[in-house]
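Title: [Solved] Sigma non-opioid intracellular receptor 1 3D structure

Original question kept below for reference.
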Amino acid sequence: MGFFFSRLFRYIIVFFALYSGTQYVLKNKGYNFSPKEFKSLAEKAKGEGISTVAKLASDLKKVYGPLISKDLVWSGFQAGGMQLKALVLHGGLTEFIVAFQAPFATTGRSGIHFANSTCTVLSGSVQRVSDIASSDNIETFAAGGNFRQTEFESSLFSIKEKSVVVCYGRGFVPFSSLWALPQNILGGDLASTARFQFSYLRSMYESLAHTAMNTYNHVKKTYLKTELLVDESN
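Solution (posted by the thread starter after getting help):
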């Protein structure tokens, strides 16, 4: 029994160290997107139907260029009991922009995420009840409305038929796969799961390639400039 508790204590220490280290990195690293600008562009894109996502994608590309996915593909998406469609606008390890559309009215849980998210309703309406709310007050967000989902916060959502929501988040994104992956696999929807994962990983690759190229060009420019200055001084 003493050995069991000793091992458990070590696991707790390791978990706490990993959690603290991840929090430190997330707090101090740089990010590509501005939540304020994302919110502004999303509010301007509000309208009717799924076409609002194409408008937002176009506006985001004008600002962020290749950081926005080249190929925008909708996938079936099940999560927290909700039946949705999802489209990856940007995929990364610590940032994401994903649009969700409800073909039919659906209700479910937001899940618990190691990330902070800001979401804007592009079309339709969304209702939310927080698990930690001390009353039965229901928040309602119409087109153009914005709501935040903080780290490890869980809420119950009801999404109106044909509504569209887009979310930008920062955090340890792989942890969020626990929200959707099991339900999609157990539901036998392997094709949609694979399509969504492929879209996300492809967007991540495109973003990393862009960042790597920018870093290379910066280092090359700085290095060559230094070399030229040294040659001139000699």
